[in-house]
Amino acid sequence: MEQIGRIPLLGASPVVDCGRWPAKAFAGEVVPFEVTAFREGHDAIGVRLVLTDPDGESRVLPLAEAAPGTDRWRVLAQPDRAGSWSFRFEGYGDEFATWAHNAATKIDAGVDVELMYAMGRELLTAAASDRSRPAAERRYLTACATELARPDADRRALVDDARLAQIAAERPMFTLHAETETMPLRVERSRAGVGSWYEFFPRSEGAKKRRDGSWSSGTFRTAAKRLPAVAAMGFDVVYLPPIHPIGRAFRKGPNNTLDAGPNDPGSPWAIGSAEGGHDSIHPDLGTKKDFAAFLARARSLGLEIALDLALQASPDHPWVTEHPEWFTTLPDGTIAYAENPPKKYQDIYPVNFDNDPDGIRAEVLRIVRHWISFGVRIFRVDNPHTKPVAFWEWLIAEVTATDPDVVFLAEAFTRPAMMRTLAKVGFQQSYSYFTWRNTKQELEEFLTSISAETADYLRPNLFVNTPDILTEYLQFGGPAAYTIRAAIAATAAPLWGVYSGFELFENVARPGSEENIDNEKYEYKPRDFAAAEAEDRSLALLLGILNGIRRSHPALGQLRNLVLHHSEDDAILVYSKHLAGEFTTTGRPDTVIVVANVDPHSVRETTIHLDAAALGLAPGAAFHVRELITGAEWTWTEHQYVKLDAFTTPVHILEIVEAPDDV
Q1: Which one from 34, 316, 363, 382 is the annotated catalytic residue?
Q2: pTM for this structure?
Q3: Does 522 show up as a binding residue in the annotation?
Q4: Euclidean distance between CA atoms 551 and 346, whole angstroms
Q5: Is residue 411 annotated as part of the catalytic site, yes or no?
Q6: Would you say 387 is a known binding-site residue?
Q7: What residues does alpha-maltose 1-phosphate bind to (predicted)?
Q8: Which of 128, 476, 527, 560 has its CA 20 to 30 A from that of 390?
């Protein structure tokens, strides 16, 4: 085992499982790089980061102690493009800093005065002889060394000379040197880390009920008419449930019943019929040409389409007859259907990845590349936790090796170890526990986890609802609950999502479940969005405002910068996001403060206590804020009274702005 060096460099970050997998970032993300570094005695040390881009070009960034006396050093860096980056830390004995500190202390105390000047002269003379330094810098060092030898000169001022300190910071004067091994950083495109998702079923958009009670399905042509409204609300990604043919055998009827009628469409996740499987389009939706036109319309509106990748089959899927070995045959000769007790999915056969793994891998890779050929670059993966992790690691690596811009979202509401490992092996995004974190304490713990504990590898997509999830908070919280959840999701993480119907406050659950009654998974559900907006029964305007706020404030496009603040009320959640000017396109800092009453049934008033440093402010200073939903403006302090009425104004989203001259 290699012995520890004279300047130990320990606990490097970001590192995932000791480097087994690369840490992750997205283009434009501000990443904290940290390491613990120290040496024996009292001499000063310096630490720097060497960050190398995909072209092999390196830049060197000095680290500063995160907090005095902790020996933990930190610097923020912003990888600006996708690709394979790498980094290492270097530590060194900082001879100039050691001399400057000792000289200032001793000279001011009248101790070893001439010795200190002599030591400084030797140090600067040696640095001036380094021909790798610019000529002007060498001349300045020589001049300073000469001055230190002159008793009649103002030698004491040179100890604190700003230019000397800058020279020493840019090109340190050191003897001892240590460095870590080089570590990987995988930087992916910005959409892998920042985006607003909207989910809808294309078959419901334009669906019409006939007089005899049967339905005509919506198509890609009719669904395309919904896209402008989605874009107008500011969403970036439209996610479609499976668009493939649906099996007839054991088809589910309304509300997940087992007795489907002849006109019931069935669940899109029961994939496969005589019309085809995962590489086919449901005939009711149209043709592949229609799908291509749908994609083109989305692109023209600035939207990306995400497709569902559900690796399972209905009993009618071509796989069942062509590859029966891909499923589990029970002792009675039947094929095992999917179960998640107490839920049963008789219309779905899960794939057995232990049977013919090479054949299954080849088929899935073929399917993914088939849809990539249409221009699809985002896949929402259904239940990845029920498939081997090694399979996903292989598939994502194979796909991104040829198409590095492809994004996979893991829909895995499962145990933390599995969720986190799926992210480590390659999933660019992950569903999270956000839907079930509703109290102030629950949310504070959750936000700390996603922004600090797992941010090096897991990017949470904060969906507020899904076809499977209608929480009690939404069922019984009224419109205030919908406003609160949307505001927190849109500001707490760079990724968030909405399932269609959320903006209409759909809150009636099927008895005994967390699912909407008359669930769209099993039937057509056309919605009259225009009428709801005209009658002020829609949250669409707020969703548009939230997405507009996200686009206007780069601080909200970051995950790791969330800071919790204190409030004296157990229902008032307070957090902020700050981005220094060096990381914004304008050069100006950006700060957003969110204050939310998470109890949708109450009026709350309290005092909140803000950490000024986390806001980029000097302690004790008053500052001007603008409420980004209402436009109201106030002057605030670190200790601020707030009143939040869940029935009128449950949330403040504030930006810090320059105060007008008359304030």
Answers
A1: 382
A2: 0.96
A3: yes
A4: 44
A5: yes
A6: no
A7: 252, 312, 347, 383, 521-522
A8: 560
